[in-house]
C-alpha cells in the first residue's frame, strides 16, 4: 500500500459530502489552517510572522517533517490531502485538518510561496504557486528540515472582500490572536511564537510559549501569571472527562468539536448572572452563556436560512461582462441569486458571455448592492454549486438585524426564557460564536474537580 503521507485525491462522493458549505476564510482561519498543518507535520517549533497584522504577509514556519518532492504538485490542488482517503476515514482522523483544501483555497485568494525541506532531502526547495495552485517556480533553497508557508496579500483576488478585510483588520486580528492563543494553550510540547511588524517598524511580540509540557505553563505563557489567579479564561476549556466520554468528545478539539449540540437540551438552568449571563449545569459541569450573543446567533441563522430578499427592478437591464465560466455558474444557480434578491433575464440565443442581464437588485434601507456582490456569490458557488449562500454584505446586514432583535444585556429573564435560549443553541448550525465572532458560552468549572480540591 501507499505510504501514509503520500498526497492523494479524495473520491468525488466524499468531496461532495465534505463540501458542506462555503469556505470563506478569515485571517483567523488562514493562520489556524497553517498552524494546524505544522502541528500535523509533527513540528515542535512554530513561528508565525505577520506584516501589517496579516494584511501584507502571513508566514508560518515549522521544523516538522517537511514535504517530499513527489508531493509538491499535490500540496495545493483542491481536495488533495495526505490525511484521508474516503469518508469513512473522517471518523478516525486524528489530525486537525482533513478536507485538503486549505492550501488550495489560500492559493486562490493570495500569493503563496512555500519553502520546504523533507527529512530525507539533502537540500530544501522553494515553490511559488499561481492562483490555481499550480507551481510556477521551483528552485533549490537551502534551509533546515521543515516547512515555511508564506501568504502575501490575502484576499487580493476578491477586491470587495479585500477591502473589507483591510477595513475590519482590527477585528480580524483580534479574532486571530484568540485562535492562536487557544492553540498555544492546547499544544503541549510545541514552542509557538508570533510576531507582527507594522510597516518598517520593529517586530512586536504577539504571543509566545516555551513549549511547556503542561497546560498550566502554556496558560501562564499566554496570559501571564496574573490571569492564572482569576482562570475564567479567554479561551474555551474542555468539559470534564466524564462529559467528554459520555458525548464522545475529544478534549483537545476546538469549541465546535469540544461540545455536542445535544448537550443544550439537557442543561439545567441554575440562574441568571449580572442580568447578562445564563448559568447552566450539565451533570457536574457548569457553563456560562452570554444571553445576547446566543440569541443573536439564533436570530442570525434563522434570517440566513429563511429570508428571501426583496429585489428592486432596474429601469434598464444591465450587462455584467462575465466570463463564460462565471456566466454558466450564474445560470446554474439562479434560485440562490433570487433568494438573495438578484434577478436576471437569460437570453439563450445570445453569444456566450452576453447571455445574462441583471434586472433586479436587493434593496434595504441602509444597504446598496451591486455587481461585486454578484462576483462574490459566483466565487462561492463555483466552490459549492447549489449550496445556499449569501454575499458577505448580506451576512453583515443580517448580523445587524439579528443584533437589534435579540434580548439585550441588562434584561431580567425567567427560567423558561433562559431555557428557551439554551434549547435554541442545540437547534442551530453553529451555536458557539455570535455573528461577530464573540464566543456565546464558556465552560466555567467542573463541580467534581472543585469538590476534589
Ligand atoms: P489537509 O491539511 O486538510 O490535508 P491542506 O491544504 O491544509 O490540507 O494541506 C495539504 C497537504 O499539504 C497536507 O495534507 C500535507 O501533506 C501538506 N502540508 C501542508 N502544510 C504542511 C507543513 N507545514 N508541513 C508538511 N506538510 C504540509
Ligand atoms: Mg490542513
From TrEMBL:
<dbReference type="InterPro" id="IPR042121">
    <property type="entry name" value="MutL_C_regsub"/>
</dbReference>
<dbReference type="GO" id="GO:0016446">
    <property type="term" value="P:somatic hypermutation of immunoglobulin genes"/>
</dbReference>
<dbReference type="GO" id="GO:0140664">
    <property type="term" value="F:ATP-dependent DNA damage sensor activity"/>
</dbReference>
<dbReference type="Pfam" id="PF08676">
    <property type="entry name" value="MutL_C"/>
</dbReference>
<feature type="domain" description="MutL C-terminal dimerisation">
    <location>
        <begin position="269"/>
        <end position="413"/>
    </location>
</feature>
<dbReference type="InterPro" id="IPR036890">
    <property type="entry name" value="HATPase_C_sf"/>
</dbReference>
<protein>
    <submittedName>
        <fullName>PMS1 homolog 2, mismatch repair system component</fullName>
    </submittedName>
</protein>
<dbReference type="InterPro" id="IPR038973">
    <property type="entry name" value="MutL/Mlh/Pms-like"/>
</dbReference>
<dbReference type="InterPro" id="IPR014790">
    <property type="entry name" value="MutL_C"/>
</dbReference>
<dbReference type="GO" id="GO:0032389">
    <property type="term" value="C:MutLalpha complex"/>
</dbReference>
<dbReference type="Pfam" id="PF13589">
    <property type="entry name" value="HATPase_c_3"/>
</dbReference>
<dbReference type="InterPro" id="IPR037198">
    <property type="entry name" value="MutL_C_sf"/>
</dbReference>
<dbReference type="InterPro" id="IPR014762">
    <property type="entry name" value="DNA_mismatch_repair_CS"/>
</dbReference>
<dbReference type="GO" id="GO:0006298">
    <property type="term" value="P:mismatch repair"/>
</dbReference>
<dbReference type="GO" id="GO:0030983">
    <property type="term" value="F:mismatched DNA binding"/>
</dbReference>
<comment type="similarity">
    <text>Belongs to the DNA mismatch repair MutL/HexB family.</text>
</comment>
<keyword id="KW-0227">DNA damage</keyword>
<dbReference type="GO" id="GO:0016887">
    <property type="term" value="F:ATP hydrolysis activity"/>
</dbReference>
<dbReference type="InterPro" id="IPR042120">
    <property type="entry name" value="MutL_C_dimsub"/>
</dbReference>
<dbReference type="GO" id="GO:0005524">
    <property type="term" value="F:ATP binding"/>
</dbReference>
<dbReference type="InterPro" id="IPR002099">
    <property type="entry name" value="MutL/Mlh/PMS"/>
</dbReference>
